[in-house]
């Protein structure tokens, strides 16, 4: 049966680029927000959700990770890393001059990736946050010529916008990691795509705040020579100073090392939850 994939829309978002690079032939549905897309998998309206997780310049997409931990616990079944190139998009009636731009629209993560550009060239413009870069492009297409969007080339094409400035992100090596979420047990990505590496994401809660607690947690991985690619603390939302730790380990879940880590940490009073063990795919094309 054809699978149904949900993504952060509308058309022309980076998430859509991520989805198109991993899935073809499947039915695709766009959602206005990340929580709506994740709810749709939880409610079984769709089989798979693709949502942004982390950007190389701006860091974690907190909305995604918080919703995954606190609201809808969906397993991460794959990750795709997409090169991100941000461009300044205006409608066909706009002039070619930055000084005529009074409003800039985009997703908060895209705005943050272009802070220096905005500071240097568009200080006069008001910044407006939108639910996605695609939404910003849609709004600019329907707006007066003083509006600009920050987004990708696909959005320029989809909404008939012209590119006033290319590659306006502040640091060149820009990528975003997208998580593929699904309750399905069987592999969701076709075997035609070659995964680079395997990763496992764990959620760890410490019993209380005491000296050396995090050191003990990290030691359980260290002496087993398990390489961590990310550790992040997020508020538990139960009071100041209470945190979860989200840890990415650069290997697939196995039946020896991971159960060992889990047992050791549980003996210390920690709670260890598996958020996913999954292949990592890389998108190479620069057509973003
Ligand atoms: O707005 C989009 O186009 C998205 O897909 C979201 C998103 C994000 O949340 O980080 C994805 C990639 C870019 O980093 C900018 C925006």
UniProtKB/TrEMBL annotation:
Pfam families: PDT. Pathway: Amino-acid biosynthesis; L-phenylalanine biosynthesis; phenylpyruvate from prephenate: step 1/1. Its EC number is 4.2.1.51. PROSITE patterns: ACT (PS51671), PREPHENATE_DEHYDR_2 (PS00858), PREPHENATE_DEHYDR_3 (PS51171). The keyword Lyase applies. The keyword Lyase applies. GO terms for cellular component: cytoplasm. Keywords: Amino-acid biosynthesis, Aromatic amino acid biosynthesis, Lyase, Phenylalanine biosynthesis. GO terms for molecular function: prephenate dehydratase activity. NCBIfam families: PRK11898.1. This is Prephenate dehydratase. It comes from Sediminibacillus halophilus.
